UniProtKB/TrEMBL annotation, chain B:
Residues 57-229 form the Tubulin epsilon and delta complex protein domain. Pfam families: TEDC1. The lineage of its organism: Eukaryota, Metazoa, Chordata, Craniata, Vertebrata. This is Tubulin epsilon and delta complex 1.
């Protein structure tokens, strides 16, 4: 058993890490739910019904009764859909002189949405105004009313279709129909083909109000981010500096507030890792001539000097911190907002774009990002565990089984666990890494959390853990046993 | 909240103080509290505000002496607020935090995650001693959790890719080209779409108020000057003891140890190499001097550039913050924006660096353990294969 203080601290660290992981998982699950739902068939129940009568009554029970379309109608529907898709293609080729008409949004019936979009192209010149949009209320997302309008538009596409006229109670103004193509009478408004993003996604259009708001939003953000240099801005800046100076009330600022110290320590930590990275690069470089060799030498000497400077600065900070008392922090301090990344992008507040070209690229990017975060955390945990556990091993003198167990556990915690994702075949495999049991066989055991400490969990990318073959847990494979034991039978789980 | 600040005239009613405490609390806490249930009491809020301001170096002692029940002190709180406003782009930062996100965003660095630890789980502090096997189990659980996270993330990316490619050409903004999940969702679910639109519109109103504030700002500062002048002068130097949190002090020690180790390593390497070099070059003539100086200059420049990467305000080189994902087939990569390939390259090098660091730490542990165990007679230390 570990001593209480040590237990508390280590438990806190591990639980923090677990909480953070769980939080990330929760957020990811949320996004996954939304995305999955989007890619399925869009349920009609999730959208306002196709009511013939719009208005205050948004009661979805006003839907006309469902009617199973006959095979004839299905066929006609298919023809219609194909024709409409062709029309969409044609429209794409046309210029937008008439102004892109905004079909407010897709409807749950595939008929309706192609109808609203396809009705534009050949009439772009003359009949832009004929679109039902002007009869709609100008603001808000108007899906409730559009489906109803869609019905009469359906009529327009069908040549001489009497049945639809009888159904559509909402008589829009008598608009000259779109007679550009002979079309079969449309089927019932309850189209059998449900809407899926895959098939009809390109026909979607964002509602006008939304687009206006979004463009205004980006415009305002651009304005906010721009640093205007005018007389007024200068005057404001001087007024601010003057105010700050006055607030100091003439006393020299100690500059060593806690936030400053923390920020500086963070910078020095970053410096340390960058220096180390550079040192690694220089040490592995292979100079071909003496010039490069000299360059390398000078670089290393320079790195040493900088490391010394950083250390000196750190010692200054430490001295300053020691001067003031290190009282335990009262009741949960508000964590500091500035990021540890350097906060470089202060002036750019709206998100920039990240362009990717294929799903695989996106997946690589995402998994690398997670991997870096994971490594960061692993390194942090490693340091914490080292600091807590190694002293225990050295101070606990009794050589009985508990101590052996402790050593074994400490070894498995600290020295094993090169948790890696195996890359796909053909990609660069980091062969240089000491792969834990790289030649090891797959074990068909369940991916249990390692009860006895052998954390060599591996996975192949793309295979969910549910598939048993891809996951395995090597049993603890380090052991300490007293000399004199000849047979390996006594070793627990060694392989 | 913000338009009120502009409208607030030089009135100093007592009931302003509680509102100002609340305002300061929300400004200083990194994440806006989503659920009101988690908000601490007003007194606790006041205490947190005081400690946060002190940790940022607020120079006036009068704040510390304010009563926490909100009965007085509105002027001092107003000064505190102005101090925060003057020091940095507070308004913009807050607005950016609560921004309506219309695109599918992916952060390219990890700093945001570090800054927002999420809701702290209620910690049961009455834990006694634990067995180390419990720690091992937790560690395994963590690794399992990470692996799940990665597979979920892969699936999410695949779905995003699909949504993006299925909605090619739909967006009114040509530079984006396709809908994001949020936008497609708004089309699928009109009620949600209406809510999104409302949020967007209220954000626009906020942005306009912020721009309006900018136009009138000078008047505010002139007024604050008078407020400050009207305050009684601070009698003596504020005896603030910057409270460095326990965690911070530990961090300092860790970094100090690392830098120390790094310096020693460098020293060892440099000594041997310099000696070898001197031995070789000792007999070379003066013509060598010019090239020597050239090399020195080149190295100096390189190292200065390196130093800039961690100095104050030098972080612009790294991609930072959330980016909106835009799928564009390889042909049309003309516009502004970060390329995924570049980010991947940067991440890979960082990954390599971190892996090396982890291996080094693990090797260190191994050595240490071997030393501790090996010192004892009668024991054989068997390492697993591959170690």
């Amino acid at each position: 058993m570990l001593p209480a203080g040590c237990s508390r601290r280590l438990l806190a660290e591990l639980r923090d890490a677990l909480d953070a992981c769980a939080e990330r998982q929760r957020q990811l699950e949320r996004s996954l739910r939304v995305s999955r739902r989007l890619l399925r068939v869009w349920e009609p129940a999730e959208t306002p019904a196709l009511e013939p009568t719009p208005g205050p009554d948004t009661n979805e029970e006003a839907r006309p009764p469902a009617r199973t379309p006959s095979p004839q109608e299905l066929k006609e529907l298919e023809l219609l859909t194909q024709a409409l898709e062709k029309a969409v293609r044609v429209r794409k080729g046309l210029s937008k002189a008439g102004g892109r008409d905004e079909a407010p949004s897709r409807k749950s019936r595939s008929i309706v949405s192609p109808a609203t979009t396809a009705s534009v192209p050949p009439r772009a010149s003359g009949q832009a105004g004929r679109r039902a949009s002007e009869t709609k209320p100008p603001r808000g997302v108007r899906q409730t009313t559009v489906p109803a309008k869609g019905l009469p538009e359906l009529r327009l596409l069908s040549v001489g279709d009497q049945t639809c006229k009888a159904r559509g109670a909402q008589a829009a103004k008598p608009e000259p129909g779109l007679r550009d193509q002979e079309m079969a009478p449309s089927a019932a408004p309850q189209a059998p083909e449900a809407f899926t993003l895959k098939q009809k996604g390109i026909l979607l259009r964002l509602p006008m109000a939304f687009r206006k708001a979004a463009s205004q939003n980006s415009r305002l953000w651009a304005q906010l981010s721009s640093t205007e240099t005018g007389d007024s801005m200068d005057a404001t800046t001087t007024a601010k500096t003057q105010f700050l100076r006055k607030m100091q009330s003439g006393w020299p600022s100690s500059r060593l507030c806690a936030a400053e110290v923390e920020a500086e320590v963070g910078r020095l930590r970053k410096a340390c890792s960058l220096l180390r990275q550079r040192m690694g690069e220089e040490l592995t470089a292979d100079p071909v001539d003496w010039m490069q060799e000299y360059h390398c030498l000078l670089t290393l000497e320079g790195l040493q000097a900088i490391a010394g400077q950083c250390l000196h600065r750190l010692q200054e900070l430490r001295a300053a911190v020691m001067e003031h008392q290190l009282a335990p922090w009262p009741e949960g301090r508000l964590p500091s907002a500035p990021s540890s990344c350097g906060g470089g992008a202060d002036s750019i507040w709206s998100p920039q774009l990240l362009l990717y070209s294929s799903t695989q690229e996106l997946q690589t990017l995402a998994s690398l990002r997670l991997r870096v975060a994971m490594l960061d955390e692993q390194i942090h945990l490693e340091k914490v565990l080292m600091a807590e556990l190694l002293p225990l091993v050295s101070t606990q003198e009794p050589l009985g089984p508990p101590w052996l167990a402790l050593c074994r556990a400490v070894h498995s915690l600290l020295c094993e666990g090169a948790f890696r994702l195996a890359r796909r075949a053909g990609r660069d495999c980091r062969a240089g890494l000491a792969e834990r049991g790289a030649g090891g066989s797959l074990r068909g055991t369940e991916a249990l959390p390692a009860v006895q400490g052998g954390e060599g969990l591996r996975t192949r990318r793309g295979h969910p853990p549910g598939r048993g073959s891809a996951c395995f847990v090597p049993l603890p494979n380090s052991s300490i046993f007293p000399a004199g034991l000849e047979s390996p039978r006594g070793i627990i789980g060694a392989q | 909240m913000w338009p009120q600040v502009g409208r607030r005239g030089p009135s100093r009613e007592a009931q302003k103080a509680p509102a100002l405490w609340r305002l300061l609390f929300h400004v200083l806490s990194p994440r806006p509290a989503d659920d009101a249930a988690a908000l601490p009491t007003p007194e606790a809020q006041a205490r947190l505000v005081k400690s946060a301001l002190r940790s940022q170096g607020y120079p006036r002692r009068a704040l510390v002496q304010l009563p926490e029940d909100g009965s007085q002190g509105s002027r001092e709180l107003l000064l505190a607020l102005s101090w925060l406003l003057a020091r940095g782009p507070l308004l913009e930062r807050l607005l950016a935090q609560i921004r309506v996100r219309l695109g599918d965003e992916m952060p390219v660095c990890e700093c945001e995650v570090l800054a927002s630890p999420g809701p702290p789980a209620p910690r049961v502090e009455a834990d006694g001693c634990v067995d180390i096997r419990h720690l091992q189990w937790l560690m395994g659980k963590l690794r399992f959790g990470w692996r799940n996270l990665i597979t979920s993330q892969q699936e999410h990316c695949a779905l995003l890719g699909k949504v993006h490619s299925y909605t090619r050409g739909c967006h009114s903004d040509r530079s984006l080209g396709h809908l994001s999940v949020t936008e497609a969702e708004l089309l699928r679910d009109p009620e949600g779409g209406r809510q999104l639109l409302r949020r967007l519109e209220s954000e626009n109103a906020r942005l306009e108020a912020a721009l309006e504030w900018r136009r009138r700002e000078l008047v505010f500062w002139q007024w604050m000057d008078t407020v400050l002048d009207a305050c009684p002068p601070e009698a003596s130097q504020p005896t603030f003891l910057p409270r460095i949190p326990e965690r911070g002090a530990g961090e300092l020690e860790l970094v100090a140890r690392e830098l120390q180790a790094l310096q020693e390593e460098l020293q060892a390497v440099v000594e041997t190499r310099r000696a070898a070099w001197e031995a070789r070059v000792g007999g070379w003539g003066p013509g060598w001097k010019a090239t020597q100086r050239a090399s020195e200059e080149a190295v100096r420049q390189e190292l200065t550039a390196l130093q800039r990467a961690w100095e104050r305000g030098g972080g612009l080189a790294q991609p930072h913050g959330p980016h909106r994902l835009v799928r564009s087939e390889a042909g049309t990569l003309g516009g502004p924006g970060l390329r995924a390939t570049e980010v991947i390259k940067a991440l890979r090098s960082r990954e390599a660096c971190l892996e090396a660091a982890l291996r080094q730490l693990q090797g260190q542990c191994r050595q240490e353990l071997a030393r501790l165990v090996g010192a004892l007679p009668g024991f054989i230390w068997i390492l697993p294969p591959g170690c």
